[in-house]
Amino acid sequence: MSTEQALTTRAADFSAWYNDVVMRAELADYSPVRGCMVIRPRGYRIWELMQRALDEMFRATGHENAYFPLLIPQSFLAKEAEHVEGFAPQTAVVTRGGGKELEEPLVIRPTSETIIYAMLAKWVQSYRDLPVLLNQWANIVRWELRTRLFLRTTEFLWQEGHTAHATADEAEAEARLILGIYRRFAEEWMAMPVITGAKTDAEKFAGAVRTYAIEALMQDNRALQAGTSHNLGQNFAKAFEVRYQTTTGDWEYVWSTSWGVSTRLIGGLVMTHSDDKGLICPPRLAPLQVIVVPIWKSDSDQQGVLEAAQQARHSLVAAGVSAQVDDRDAVKPGAKYYHWEARGVPVRLEIGPRDVAQGQAVLARRTGGKASVPLAGLADAVRRAMDEIQAGLLEAARQRREANSVRNVKDREALKDLMNGAGGFAYAGYCGEAACETAVKEATKATIRVLPDGEFRSSPAPATCVWCGGPAVTEAVWAKAY
Fold first, then answer.
1. Which of 26, 122, 130, 250 has a CA 20 to 30 Å removed from the CA of 224?
2. Which domains does the chain show, CATH number per domain?
3. Mean pLDDT over the full length of the chain
4. What is the model's pTM?
5. Is 16 within 8 Å of 269 (Cβ atoms)?
6. Beta strands of 237-336 (E only): which ranges?
């Protein structure tokens, strides 16, 4: 038996369960600075694996990494009125430096559009300088009142892409390209199914013409905005005078985009897959993919079992699988199982004296199930198991999402009952009026997550607005969200 206290169950208190899982899995801890978190090595390793995968996707589509300053002149934010209005309540401002009052206050980066466009104004002169395809990996500070590890913290890590183009069509294509990359990453790496679509004006990024998003449904039937891609039109270009000379000699403002995902993805991973035993991590993003547990009862068995366990580990590492041997002498096998289950290791290999004699190991999956596998060709067997776990997690999450998505919600009472009850994704007609969007939020705390893309829309399309009963101009997906 483990001496660790049992986790809060999801049914008892989902929020407490989430915090318990994060803490028990050693992903993060609370910082002495209110609202900030310390990302522990296991959590940071997940982020590194996310970075690596996304960075390869960005580079494959022509994007380059750069880095811009953390401190931004306050006057820069004021140049784009909608942008400053959207971020003003969340900004942290430095007014003193080197023991003196600063001539101009400096804002700690809440996002980097303004300082990047100040530089683009210097770098872009001709159509030959376009497109500009930049990305940066950075930290962000937004003064949050209510915080939760990974999901919403005052400081967090993210990537933010910024691009400039010669035409409106190119900027729109870029915003859509990145949305597709985010979806592919969420589904292929995180095993987290998402729906895609556009945000309403009330929910879009401050200063954007259009915002697109990927939205996932967590196990408590709340939505998580997992990534956004913004078509900024010429708004920032005009504010910062980013112009280029066309092939005909005329001057034109660039068309731009910005896009980003953050460490909240780790929170999404936790809430999508984990159970009451602790973290379940998709193998492709697991900090440790395999734990080898040698089991012996007598001293005469110990050396042979340990040697077989180390040989198993070496064969896995040589094949590119991250593996470790838990050879702690004072800890019983059951306690070791419990320890590594809570930390989300996808595969456990148990090797005892009988297994050594038979040239095998027992392969246990974090998602359930055990089977004997030969030590010869062990890496292939482990890889097959991990591929099956990865695919199984995605399918289970997709089935859960669809089981908790309600199509053609007919009227306001039905919507209120759903949002005040079980929750989930509610697909319903929307008249396009901001008043109806606001009224739903006030009555249910639900928001329009996206106006869904074609493949996610209902057929036939809803004819009337779920709230006012007037003609629907589009379909909306409503949900309570993080």
1. 26
2. 14-273 (3.30.930.10), 288-401 (3.40.50.800), 405-479 (3.30.110.30)
3. 96
4. 0.96
5. no
6. 243-245, 251-253, 255-262, 290-294, 323-325
